[in-house]
Every structure is written in structure tokens, then in C-alpha cells.
Specification:
- By secondary structure, the chain is of the alpha/beta class.
- It has two domains: 4-171 and 215-241, NAD(P)-binding Rossmann-like Domain (Rossmann fold), CATH 3.40.50.720; 172-213 and 245-317, Rossmann fold (3-Layer(aba) Sandwich), CATH 3.40.50.
- 45% of the residues lie in helices and 14% in strands.
- The chain has helices at residues 14-25, 42-46, 58-68, 81-86, 88-109, 142-161, 187-197, 216-228, 249-257, 271-279, 287-293, 301-317; strands at residues 4-7, 30-34, 50-52, 72-75, 112-114, 117-118, 165-166, 168-170, 172-174, 201-203, 211-215, 240-241, 245-247, 265-267.
- Helix 1 (14-25) links the parallel strand 1 (4-7) and strand 2.
- It is globular and about 55 Å long.
- Bound molecules: serine.
- Serine (SER) is lined by residues 80-81, 118-120, 143, 170, 172, 183-185.
- Serine binds next to loops.
Length: 319
């Protein structure tokens, strides 16, 4: 990879992934793609080139790829699970019509493509405990339907046209930088904001509901290491199960309370989020990622909680 385009560079993953890619490959070699209304600011704007890159506009993507001589695209444009249920047509337009544009541009210009899949690609009849790499994927959310389609279409472009497509199924991602918007796993980020602000946390997910999670530094490494992996070793491509931890709300609450003793939680379960959460795995088996490209997470629940509280306190309280 010499020249990279990040589509969705100001979003939950993109804002941090763009900075990490620039640190590794040089600021000038990573173009921050954004849509109008979500312009890069601060470091993201200053650290390298940027361009309007609307995933629904194939001609615009092709022009950027040609102008900057792009050879790898990180395609991070998506709506998260809850908001996608409210806007299913838009979720499909961005997730799948957009992916089609990206894959076509990649085919014509010989680019590698990374597009995240998710634990949302699984459904109620998927085995929930140690969910295997290859298993039943019959999700009932439009988010999940678009993620399964993402995996299939990306595999199709690889086998039919030789496009170097790669993907991971991200679990819930936890970060103190850019908050997620409209996902089912957002509570695992929101709970830290409540703890640091000294507020009671109103939890939309019921006790006992386990989901896979990952701290953002591990997620960024997963994406980059998969894209750098030796293709000869990849049996799978789109997408690999990856996980770092799996917990229900009461476990992350207890972990935070060790360090914030006055912290309180109250459960007000959101029926839509709860139904989605219950349809997703309780814990993923990421053996294939470990064996095929050496995946290993660095952060478990304890290390993640310590780092989150420290960094989020610095961000919210020292302004
Ligand atoms: N974090 C995502 C969501 O909750 C799952 O991939 O929608």
C-alpha cells in the first residue's frame, strides 16, 4: 500500500483509523474522504490531504482514486444497526450501492479494499456461544442483511475479478475519541461518559445480555494487519471473526465501579436494541483470524476500562 483513501474518515472508526494510517504510511499518502456536513477538523484536516468522497457517487470516487494514485481503499461508510432500522433504504444505498461503486473503482484501478463487516451479520439462529467463522448468517436487521451482502459481494469481486478485498467482523467498538451514533453496542461507550461525568447510567440493554466488544486501538490494528497480511495465507477473506472480550452490562458496570465507587446504573431496556442484541452472538470464535494472519487483541476488559477512564477523564474534565 502506497496511497490510501479512507471513505468515512470523520466517522466512529475513520477518524482514528485515518490518523493511525498516516502515522504508519505518512500524512501525504492517506486521503481523508468525507461527505459535506461532516468535514475533517483539527489534526484530521491538518495531517494530510482530504477530499469529498461520497460513497454513493462512483464518478467522484473514481476521480479521487485517479488524482491521488490510490491503491488501497478503506470503505467505512455505513449506518449503524439501530439507525439503519429507521432508514433501511438509506442503509442499503450507503452500504451496498456504495460498496458496488467502491468495488467497481477498485476493479478498474487495481485497488485493495477493506470494508468492515460486523457481529450484526449473524442472526437469531446462529450458534451464540463461540460463534464459528463459517456458520449460519440469517440476520433480521437491515444492518445485518447489508453486512452479509457486503461479505458476499466482496468475495465475489475477489473470485471473479481478482480484486484484493478483505474484511473483519467487528464487535462493538469502544473509544474515547469519536462517539458511535445509532448502534446497539453504543451503551458500552455511553456508560463511560456517564461514569466520568458523575451521572447515573441509564442502560438500554438488559442484564445478562452478552456481546463481543473491542477497544479501538485493537480494532485499528486488526484492519491494518489484515490489509498487510500475506495473501497466500488467507483462506477466508470477507470477513474474519475478531474479538477481544465479551460481557453483559453488569460486568462492565462492575469493572468501572471498581474505579468510580459512587457510580450508579439503572436499567430501562430499549425493546429494539434488546431484540437486536439478543439476535447477535454472545461470544465469537476468532481462531481463523489468529491462524491465517496472526490476530491477537492487546486489551481485555480490565486494561480497556483503565485506559478509557483515564483518557476520557482527560478529554472531558481538562478542557
Ligand atoms: N457497533 C455496531 C452496532 O451496534 C455493531 O457492529 O450497530
Amino acid at each position: 500500500m502506497k496511497k490510501i483513501l479512507v471513505i468515512g474518515s470523520t466517522g466512529q472508526i475513520g477518524s482514528e483509523l485515518t490518523a493511525e494510517l498516516r502515522a504508519r504510511y505518512g500524512g501525504d499518502n492517506v486521503v481523508a474522504g468525507y461527505i459535506l456536513g461532516a468535514e475533517p477538523k483539527g489534526e484530521l484536516a491538518a495531517g494530510g490531504p482530504s477530499a469529498v468522497a461520497d460513497v454513493t457517487n462512483g464518478e467522484q470516487l473514481a476521480a479521487i482514486v485517479k488524482e491521488h494514485n490510490i491503491d488501497a481503499i478503506y470503505n467505512l461508510a455505513a449506518l449503524l444497526s439501530v439507525v439503519a432500522e429507521q432508514k433501511p433504504r438509506l442503509a442499503w444505498k450507503i452500504g451496498i450501492d456504495g460498496l458496488w461503486n467502491v468495488l467497481e473503482v477498485a476493479r478498474e484501478n487495481n485497488c485493495a479494499v477493506f470494508t468492515p463487516s460486523s457481529i450484526g451479520s449473524f442472526g437469531p439462529n446462529t450458534p451464540h456461544e463461540l460463534t464459528p467463522q463459517d456458520t449460519i448468517q440469517r440476520p433480521r436487521t437491515i444492518y445485518g442483511v447489508s453486512k452479509v451482502t457486503t461479505e458476499l459481494l466482496s468475495d465475489y469481486y475477489h473470485t471473479k475479478y481478482g480484486v484484493d478485498t478483505r474484511s473483519v467482523r467487528f464487535p462493538g467498538l469502544i473509544s474515547y475519541v469519536t462517539p458511535p451514533g445509532g448502534g446497539t453496542t453504543d451503551y458500552a461507550v455511553d456508560i463511560f461518559y456517564a461514569a466520568v461525568r458523575g451521572e447515573k447510567f441509564i442502560c438500554p440493554i438488559a442484564e445478562g445480555t452478552r456481546m463481543d466488544m473491542m477497544y479501538m486501538p485493537d480494532a485499528l490494528r486488526a484492519a491494518i494487519e489484515l490489509m498487510e497480511a500475506d495473501p497466500a495465507k488467507l483462506i477466508h477473506r470477507n470477513g474474519f471473526n475478531v474479538t477481544a472480550m465479551s460481557f453483559p452490562p453488569e460486568k462492565i458496570y462492575a469493572e468501572i465501579k471498581k474505579r468510580v465507587p459512587d457510580f450508579e446504573i439503572e436499567y430501562q431496556v430499549d425493546p429494539l436494541k434488546q431484540a437486536i442484541a439478543e439476535s447477535w452472538p454472545d461470544s465469537l470464535d476468532d481462531t481463523a483470524a489468529r491462524e491465517e494472519w496472526g490476530w491477537r487483541p492487546n486489551f481485555g476488559i480490565g486494561a480497556m476500562t483503565r485506559d478509557m477512564l483515564e483518557k476520557l477523564s482527560a478529554k472531558l474534565l481538562n478542557k
